[in-house]
Amino acid sequence: MICTAKKCGIRFQPPAIILIYENEVKGKNRQRIMPVRNFSKFSDCTRAAEQLKNNPRHRSYLEQVPPKQLEKLFTLLRGHLCGQSLAATMEQIQRETTIDPEEDMNKLDDKELARRKSIMDELFEKNQKKKDDPDFVYDIEVEFAQEELQSCGWDTESADEF
C-alpha cells in the first residue's frame, strides 16, 4: 500500500499511536490507530518506538515517520503514566533534546555524552549547506575588522631574549 503520512499523534486512554495518512491510490485521508500494548512507566521509549516501527502490521504506514518522533510520543505516554502533566513532560523533552552551551561536557558519562553528540550531529546536518541547496556559495571570503592588537607582557620580553 502506498501512503503518505500527514500527522502522527498519541492517545492516552487507551494508549495508542494515531497516524493520519493519505492513501495515494484513492487520494483519501485515512486514520490508523495503532494500540500500544505492554508499555509501562518503566519501559524504554527508544525500544518501544523501534518495535512499533518494525511491526509487520504497521511497517508500511510508519515508513515516513521519523523514529525520533515516535520516541517523543512514547516519552509523552510514559510521562502521562508517571502522573506528570503534559506541560511538564514537554519541558522535560525540550531539556533532553537541546544542548546548553554553558554545560561542561567533560563531566558527563559516556552514554549521556554520546546522546549529546548525536543531538549536535543532527543539528549540524540540519543547518549544513550542501552543493544542491539554492543558496549555496562555493568559495566565501569574509573580511573581519582588524582591531588594534594589545601587546602582552610575556610576549615582548621573550622576543628580546632571542
Question: How does the major sheet shape up?
Answer: 3 strands, antiparallel
Stretches with pLDDT under 50, minimum 5 residues: none
What overall geometry do the principal axes of the alpha carbons give? flat
Please report the number of helical segments.
Answer: 5
Q: Roughly what is the average pLDDT, rounded to an integer? A: 88
What features would you describe in this structure?
With 162 residues, the chain is of the alpha+beta class. Helices cover 40% and strands 15% of the residues. A three-stranded antiparallel sheet has the order 1-2-3, with helices on one face. Strand 2 (16-23) and strand 3 (28-35) form a beta hairpin. Helix 1 packs across helix 2 (67-81). The protein is flat, with a radius of gyration of 25 Å. It starts with a strand and ends with a helix.
Summarize it:
40% of the residues lie in helices and 15% in strands. It is of the alpha+beta class. The mean pLDDT is 88.
Give the arrangement of secondary structure elements.
Layout: E1 3-11, E2 16-23, E3 28-35, H1 45-54, H2 67-81, H3 86-97, H4 110-127, H5 153-161
Helix pairs in contact: 1-2, 2-3
Labels describing this entry:
3-stranded antiparallel beta sheet, alpha+beta, 162 residues, 3 strands
